[in-house]
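Can't paste images in this forum, so I'm doing it all in text. The chain is below; anyone willing to post the predicted C-alpha cells underneath?
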Amino acid sequence: MYILGLLGPQELIVIFFVFGMMLLLPLIALISILRNSFEGNDKLIWVLVVLLLPVLGPILYFLIGRNKRIRENKL
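Text version of the structure:
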C-alpha cells in the first residue's frame, strides 16, 4: 500500500531512519561534549561544529574529537 501513491513502507522506514539519525547523532554528540572536559576552547569549538554541521559535525566529533578529551582518573 502506497501513501499518496508515492511512498511505500520500505521507503518510509528508510526516511524515518535517516531523519532519526539526523536528530539523534547531534544530540548524543552534544551530551558527550558537555559531559567531558577539553583543553582550552575545544569544548566550545566542538559544540559549534556539531550545531553548525548537523550531519558532518557529529561524525567528525566521534572520529576526531573523542580522542581530544581530557581523561580523568576515576577510582
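Residues 9-68 form one domain. DSSP finds three helices and no strands in the chain.
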